[in-house]
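sry for the spam today, last one i promise. struct tokens for design, 214 residues
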């Protein structure tokens, strides 16, 4: 049974992780209660807002979608795409188990994006990610690695915690990718992460980095 902790404790714990093994162990503890004790309790709306952003800018040719760090499937639920047009990818088998029970993905893959992704498909039309490029999780390094997942002209909508973006060197990595002719000029938008008050991160913002593979 998952350890009982409120949403604020779960968030602080997640931000303090440091290694892939830490993430696997941590999400094993509360995958079963993530949607209630974290998402609902803290008003975590970023996956829904990111999905709405993706739908505004994506095209029919951007299918199928790779949902990076899919967790319990919040992005896929919000996207409501045609059947069998989105795959979920996550480091936590326990979170993937929750996603599988919702029957919203074509396929699910366990992957550590700090390591090789050669076992993943490489014919996606787009990549979307919410809540993975943040404190205690991923820095900018995997952005180059996941370029191999999509076809040329594939769309990326990558959510990054705004403070983590500034501290983690995302700007430098994106400039390098653009200068090397790997991506189009990124368009960056700001979205809310939470609705409601009552915790230290209520006012946190996320940036959506939008670009296409060249």
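last one done:
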């Amino acid at each position: 049974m998952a350890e009982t902790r409120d949403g604020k404790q779960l968030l602080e714990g997640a931000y303090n992780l440091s290694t892939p093994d830490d993430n696997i162990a941590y999400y094993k503890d509360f995958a079963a209660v993530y949607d209630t004790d974290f998402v609902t309790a803290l008003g975590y709306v970023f996956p829904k807002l990111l999905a709405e952003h993706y739908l505004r800018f994506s095209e029919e040719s951007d299918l199928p979608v790779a949902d990076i760090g899919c967790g319990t499937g919040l992005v896929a639920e919000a996207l409501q795409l045609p059947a069998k047009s989105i795959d979920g990818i996550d480091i936590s088998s326990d979170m993937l188990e929750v996603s599988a029970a919702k029957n919203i993905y074509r396929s699910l893959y366990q992957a550590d994006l700090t390591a090789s992704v050669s076992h993943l498909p490489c014919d996606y039309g787009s990549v979307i990610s919410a809540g993975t490029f943040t404190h205690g999780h991923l820095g900018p390094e995997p952005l180059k690695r996941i370029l191999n997942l999509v076809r040329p002209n594939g769309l990326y909508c990558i959510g990054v915690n705004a403070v983590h973006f500034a501290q983690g060197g995302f700007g430098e990595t994106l400039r390098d990718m653009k200068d090397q002719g790997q991506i189009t000029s990124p368009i960056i938008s700001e979205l809310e992460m939470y609705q409601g008050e009552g915790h230290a991160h209520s006012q946190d913002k996320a940036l959506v980095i939008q670009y296409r593979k060249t």
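The first strand starts at residue 65 and ends at 68. ok im logging off now
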